[in-house]
Amino acid sequence: MQTFSGFQRQITHRLLNMAYVAAIIVIGLVATLQPARADDLTLPAVPANLQVPTGQKLFFIGHAVGTQNYICLPADGGVKFTLFTPQATLSKEDDQAATHYFSPNPAEGGAVRATWQHSKDSSTVWGKVADGNSSTDPAFVAPGAIPWLLVTVVGVQNGPSGGDKLAKTTFIQRVNTGGGAAPATGCTAVTDVGNRAYVAYTADYYFYKRVN
Length: 212
Description:
Layout: H1 4-33, E1 56-75, E2 78-92, E3 95-105, E4 111-118, E5 124-128, E6 134-135, E7 148-157, E8 169-179, E9 196-210
Antiparallel strand pairs: 1-2, 1-9, 2-3, 3-4, 4-5, 5-7, 6-7, 7-8, 8-9
């Protein structure tokens, strides 16, 4: 005849087995429902004129938060706000990964270009937007947002200790932009020349390298 304590042990064993199975199921469901990590790089949907040429591989995505900085200057017989530099921090999984601004490109004799510098190894890349590689297509670009871009790299430089995390870059896409457009006021008359505007913006920058 089975003792009461033996019966208790049997029930306890069965309950533990059931709890183990339930835990495995829950872990599996959590893993399934979790969003993809930033390391799971997915190509963005972009207008046809912003697609990266074949033979390139996406290797880094940075989310930028910063400002587009404008100055009011004479232009086309009047005045208008002209971008003099962006100023942004690119983050990856909440860690600062790079900074973005304008600076002279040594490979072009000091021509001022859009610049991205890696936060840890100081490797740097300069790029320009070729004709036809900008889009304000409303199917992609939000109202009031700066254009989406395909940037062609025209200069790279390793960091002072040889770091090359960004030096392999060949193309950069600026997508998912929010804000950043020049303001409609503050630059309408000659007396406004010299006025500056710092307009908050966000964007995602997709970095590509050649396929080995």
